[in-house]
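@channel sequence for tomorrow's demo:
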Amino acid sequence: MFGRWLNRNGANSSRSDAAGNHLIDLRNVVKTYQSAAGSFTALKNVSLTVDAGEFVAIIGKSGSGKSTLINMITGIDRPTSGEVFVGDTPVHTLGEGRMSVWRGRNLGIIFQFFQLLPSLSVIENVMLPMDFCNMYRPSERHARAVHLLEQVEMADQAHKLPSAISGGQQQRVAIARALANDPPILIADEPTGNLDSKTSEAVFQLFERLVSEGKTIVMVTHDNDLARRATRSVIVSDGEIVNQYLARALPRLSLDQLITVTRQIDRLTFEPGQPIVCQGAEAEYFYIITRGRVEVIIDQPGGGELIAEVLGEGQYFGEQALLGGGVRNATVRAAHDNGLVEVVALDRNEFHALLEESAGTRADVERVAAERRAANSGAHALS
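structure tokens (generated this afternoon):
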């Protein structure tokens, strides 16, 4: 539906590289609202990082805290406690005047209900951010707005008022407006929530193209199918982030299953070189790596050891013995060269209950277990 997006590298696209940090970094953010009925905590000690070039989908049930979370990133709302950094800017410290200018130059925001100014024409809506932030020469702004509208197939509607075009067309104009100042980051709050499936797909394809050209996108969505196509999904439940590595390791779990499992897991930390499971021990837990790397070690009959595999963040281990009902056939230890290793662990009963509830997850885990058995057999044969 949309025309080809021309490759453009904005002046702000390397801001995070200059800072040497994550592009977006929320640290222990709490947001509590006060009302006549008492206090309500919408975000509970949330920490989240997003790197340049990622396409991150934020999903969760209504009222879970998704919109509050992105309002922290955009500075539309302020944390009660905690810190919010975008590039090298401490967003939580900016006053209203500086915040507006910073936001206009660095973020493109796309709302579910478009938020186009009804008294301005389509092209005037797209030019407005350039005027407000004094971006581009005045003589260039009209041509740039036309160019952006061409990319979303709305140039022929440029002089109409928003009320004269459809909802899908208004959202395309809103995307063009969000790109007006060539920001490195796009923040989209349910951008396809009021669109038909064909237009939603076209919007999502445009987002994918923008990410391929260097943009970073954080998108709130209720559509799990769209969320799975993003680089990464962040699940929010009751103001907390569900373990993202769990979602990455077991992508077939439903939102409710992920929330349930997150509440069951134990978090464990290991020093470099410390064993996590030992060959010959009874299988009790299923592990997912959330920080660092681990080495899978096979003891050799004549003595010595063989590193059969190295696993990193978002990968899991311990499934073979649990599926077979036996003992561990390998030792797994924290890698020596990578600092502390953190894992989350699900006990044997919870692991089997999870596989009973999710046939897709069972199939995935059994496939990985079979591949690892074959690889380990090959490693024994070569040793």
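heads up for whoever presents: The CA atoms of residues 194 and 258 lie 27 Å apart.
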